[in-house]
From TrEMBL:
Claim: Signal is one of the keywords in the record: yes
PROSITE patterns attached to this UniProt entry: PROKAR_LIPOPROTEIN
Domain AB hydrolase-1, chain residue ranges per copy: 81-214
SUPFAM superfamilies tied to this protein: alpha/beta-Hydrolases (SSF53474)
GO CC annotation, single: membrane
Compositionally biased region (Low complexity): 36-51
Region (Disordered) residue spans: 36-58
Organism classification: Bacteria, Bacillati, Actinomycetota, Actinomycetes, Kineosporiales
Hydrolase as UniProt keyword: yes
Record-given protein name: Pimeloyl-ACP methyl ester carboxylesterase
A Pfam short name: Abhydrolase_1
Leader sequence segment: 1-32
Protein origin, superkingdom: Bacteria
């Protein structure tokens, strides 16, 4: 199946926080009926199905946390768990081409999921919270019994923020990580955050004035409170002993030649240099969608981190 890109209009300003506009679907295999696993005392209505989305690879299992549903897709394996977390505006189907390759190459269990507001997960009103998304992911991995083996987290774009809160708020849950052109705390300096907020104000106002779709509501949820949220995010750090591969795209998500693009590259390097067990790799001939343009780079780094993690737990 060929991968299909989803057009973005707030890409630079929101650091690919959400996809706006038309969503072009491509076919993929179906999934089994969901197996509901409640992990909180509250219940919720059935999760909505995004009519424009593509069915994700794997067996669907749904957890309930804090009154909303989160859909997970599990391709069974053994020895380790690889968790793929897509960027803003994408659901689990973003990884469809990579899931069977990783399952075959590594033998590990491969997991994707839909964050709230996308795919088959519930919509949650209010501003997007990366910390709450991290809690959802942790609840799913724990509730589905997926933390009995080492976990390698693979996070693209906005999911880098979710990853940061996950490793900070749920220590020991993840044993290794691959950041794929991901949002890292070092990028969101006060100056850069102010630039991004100013750049998106007019676009966000135009989106709010137009008829709303699920995708635009998700984008606006990220825009709401963007400044304070990223001021707080800038202060966060990662555990220094966690193996991390940092992949940066050659073209970056920012306009070519702009100060933002240079700041993006510098932040990725700064993050990689902040601890001894981190490596930086540039995906040549790649846009921000590294997993679509250079899946070989992503596969290689996942394999390397997984091998390192497996050697440490023997």
């Amino acid at each position: 199946m060929s991968s299909t890109r989803r057009p973005r209009t707030l890409t630079a300003a929101l650091v690919t926080a959400a996809a706006l506009g038309a969503v072009v679907a491509c076919g993929s295999p179906g999934v089994a009926a969901p197996d509901r696993v409640p992990v909180a005392s509250s219940s919720s209505a059935p999760a909505p199905v995004d009519p424009t989305g593509t069915t994700a690879m794997g067996t669907q299992r749904t957890i309930t946390r804090d009154g909303h549903d989160v859909a997970f897709y599990v391709t069974a394996g053994s020895g380790a768990v690889i968790v793929l977390d897509a960027g803003g505006g994408e659901d689990a189907s973003y990884w469809n081409a990579l899931v069977p390759v990783l399952a075959q190459q590594t033998g590990a269990t491969v997991v994707t999921y839909d964050r709230t507001g996308s795919g088959r997960s519930s919509d949650v009103p209010g501003a997007f919270s990366a910390a709450a998304a991290a809690d959802d992911l942790a609840a799913g991995l724990q509730g589905l019994g997926l933390v009995r083996e080492p976990v390698v987290l693979v996070s693209h774009s906005l999911a880098g923020e979710v990853a940061t809160y996950l490793v900070d708020d749920h220590p020991g849950l993840v044993q290794g990580a691959v950041l794929v052109d991901a949002n890292v705390p070092q990028f969101f300096t006060p100056q850069e955050t102010a630039r991004l907020v100013a750049a998106t104000d007019e676009q966000a106002a135009q989106v709010r004035a137009a008829p709303q779709t699920r995708q635009t509501r998700q984008a606006l949820a990220v825009a709401d409170g963007f400044g304070p949220a990223h001021t707080a995010y800038h202060a966060l750090t990662w555990p220094s002993d966690l193996p991390v591969a940092v992949i940066v795209s050659e073209r970056t998500p920012m306009p070519a030649g702009s100060p933002d693009a240079e700041a993006w590259r510098a932040a990725q390097q700064h993050f990689a240099d902040a601890a001894p067990d981190r490596t930086l790799v540039t995906a040549r001939d790649s846009s921000h969608d590294v997993a679509l343009d250079r899946p070989d780079v992503v596969e290689q780094q996942i394999g390397d981190v997984l091998a390192q993690v497996r050697s440490q737990v023997r």
